[in-house]
Automatic annotation (TrEMBL):
It comes from the Eukaryota. It is an enzyme of class 3 (hydrolase). Required for efficient N-glycosylation. Necessary for maintaining optimal levels of dolichol-linked oligosaccharides. Hydrolyzes dolichyl pyrophosphate at a very high rate and dolichyl monophosphate at a much lower rate. Does not act on phosphatidate. It is found in: Endoplasmic reticulum membrane; Membrane. Signal peptide: none annotated. It is a multi-pass membrane protein. The chain crosses the membrane at residues 25-46, 92-111, 123-143, 149-168. Pfam families: PAP2 (PF01569). It comes from Discina gigas. Belongs to the dolichyldiphosphatase family. This is Dolichyldiphosphatase.
Length: 248
């Protein structure tokens, strides 16, 4: 009988993290390495459950930022630190770039667009997000997955891309491009709608909405549900929504 061949086992490096079991800080850093995966799960959950255009735009920017990291790593082809057994190139750090994009974009969104939140909450959320992103980035150095330069470059790229993407989404909201008479010949594609209105029109097939920047969705949805227990009608739900918008 022929000898049975067993192929060598491989490790799923997406969640595989090396750390020092005798070092508690190293263990914490290993858990911090899973932050990007947790954020992707959160993105996907919110995208499916809420269908908010702001979430979908931020998620799209996050994925685009990851694509940029993939390209940059193959351009630089710089190895990880010698004491690290991880796979792939190290320049720039994808973890640092990921959390930097998330922290900067989310902070800008909360501070500039979440008008229903009080100022102190917006400041607190923004500062906490940035601090957390720095901690996650530094953990990559502590675990020897990246050099300081690789982390610094990754974080810088993430910040720049977040600023650019936030600027793009801000422009997308206010531009009259696509509207009848705006030029550039886009009227045939958009049907005379502004780009933002056209985006919402196209995505209505999957029930995408644009409420997150104007109302506290958690409170509004609870109020509608609570009223529904007493036989709420559609008009009452609209009234509650308009009242919530006035509170911002």
């Amino acid at each position: 009988m022929g000898e049975h061949f067993e192929p060598p086992l491989a490790s799923l490096s997406l969640t595989h993290v090396y750390y020092n079991p005798d070092d508690r800080v190293s263990l914490i850093c290993a858990w911090l390495a899973l932050v990007p995966q947790a954020l992707v799960v959160s993105y996907a959950t919110l995208s499916i459950a809420q269908r908010e255009v702001e979430v979908l735009l931020m998620f799209s920017g996050q994925l685009a930022c990851e694509a940029v990291n993939w390209v940059l790593k193959r351009c630089f082809k710089q190895q990880r630190p010698k004491q690290m057994y991880g796979k792939g190139y190290g320049m720039p750090s994808s973890h640092a770039q990921f959390v930097a994009f998330f922290a900067v974009y989310f902070s800008l969104w909360v501070y500039l667009r979440a008008r229903h939140l009080p100022t102190y909450e917006r400041v607190l959320i923004s500062v906490t997000s940035v601090i957390a992103s720095v901690v996650v980035s530094m953990s990559r150095i502590y675990l020897s997955y990246h050099t300081r330069l690789q982390v610094a470059c990754g974080y810088s790229v993430g910040v720049v891309f977040a600023l650019a993407w936030f600027g793009f989404t801000t422009w997308l909201r206010v531009t009259t491009l696509g509207q009848t008479g705006s030029g550039w010949g886009l009227e045939a594609l958009t049907g005379g709608r502004k780009l933002w209105d056209w985006l919402l029109w196209v995505t209505q097939i999957i029930y995408v909405k644009d409420l997150l920047a104007d109302v506290d969705l958690v409170r509004w949805e609870w109020e509608v549900w609570n009223k529904a227990r007493g036989g709420i009608v559609l008009e009452e739900g609209v009234r509650l929504l308009n009242e919530e918008k006035k509170r911002r």
